[in-house]
What we know:
This protein is mostly helical. The chain has 16 helices and no strands.
Amino acid sequence: MKTKIFNRNFILLIIGQASSMFGTVLLKFTVSLLILDLTGSAALFGTITAISYLPPVFLSPVGGILADRKNKRNLMVVLDGMYCVMAILLAVSLSLPNELIYITIIMVVLSVISSFETPVVQSSVPLIQQKDSFVKSNAIVSQVNMIANLAGPLLAGLFYGITGKDNLSGVQMILFSCAVCFFLAAILETFIKIPKVSTQQAGNSLQMAKKDLFEGIRFLTTEQTYVFKAILLNAAFVFMIQPLITTGAPFIIRIVLELNSVLNGLSQAFMGAAGLMGGVIAELIADKFKASKIYQLFLIMGVAIVVFGIAVILNLSTNMTYIIFVIIGIVIFICASIAGIFIMSAIQQNVPNGMLGRVMSFYSVVVNATLPIGIFLYGYLYEEFINDLSMIMFATAFLIFVVGYIGKKTYQHL
Length: 414
C-alpha cells in the first residue's frame, strides 16, 4: 500500500517552515548586504557572521534534549514567536548609534534561537511520516526551504537595491516583513499535531540532561559508528562548501567584480533554484539512488570548483566570470541538496525516535562548531588572496576530493 505523504500535519509543517525560512533568508541576506556596505571588508563580514554561528555549538545539545522531552509543536510556536520579536528589534536597532554592535548582538540571539529550533524540526518529520517516506518527505521539506532560498535573496537584492543603506526606513520595512513571516509561521504551527515519544523522567532536570547527553554520545560512538562518521564527514564538507559560497558570493560579486546588489541577489536566487532542483531530483530518484553513492556527488562538486579556479586564472571579463561563478554555484547546490537529503534520511532511518532529537542536536553541534571557523577562515582568505582567488578554489577542491574518498566506505554502511 502506497504511503500518503501529504497528510494534514505534514502540510502545516512545511507551510510553516516555508514562511519561517523565507523570513530567515530575507533577514540574513539583507543584513549581509548592509554589513558589507557599512564595512567593505570580507574579514569583518566573516568575523561577524562567524560570531553569530557560535551559540549552536554550545546550545544544540540542550535543544536536542528539549526536542526529545517536550512538546515539539509548542517549541516551534515559541521559537518562531521569538524570531518575530528579534526581527523587530533588529529593525529598531538600525536607528541607533553603533548599529554594527547591535546587529552582531541580535544575530547572535537569532542563532541562539536556531540552536533550539533545528533539532526540533528535524526530529518532527519521522513522527508524522512513515519510515518508507523519509527520503521523499525530507526532499519536499528541502524543496520548500529552497524555494525560500530562491525568493528570499532575489527579493532582498531587489528591495535593498531600491532602498540601500542610505534609506533607513526602506531597510527597516524589509526587516518588519521578516517579522510578519515569523508570526504567520507561529500561527500555522499551533495547528500541528505531533505524537509525543515516551521518555523516562528519573532524577532532576540537570541529572536528566546529563544522562540524555551522554546516552546520545554513547549511542553514536558504540551502536551507530557509521552514522557518527557520516556526521563528521558532512561537517567537514560544510566547513568548506558553505563558507566558500556564503562568504565568497557577496564578496566576489560586490567587492571583486564590483557588481550591484540586484545581481548579487539574482545569483543567490539561481543557487536557491538549484537547491530546489536538487530536492526534486532527490525525490525522483529516492527508490534508485543509494546512500553508498553519495561520495560521487562530492567528486562532482570538487570538479566544479576546479573549473571556476581555472576561469579565474584565465582573467575573463567581469560578466563572463559572474556567469561562470553562478553556473558553478548551481552545480554545487544541486549536488549538495541531493547529498544532504540522503544523508539526513539515512540518519533518521538508523536512529530510534526517542533518540532523534539528541542525534540531530549532535549533528548541529558538530556542523556549527566547524562552520564559524570556516566562515572566519574564508573571510580571511578572501581578504588576503583577493588577487589570487584560484588558490582558494584549488585548495578547497582538493580537500573535497579527500572527504569524498574517505566517505566512500562510510556511506556504504548507511
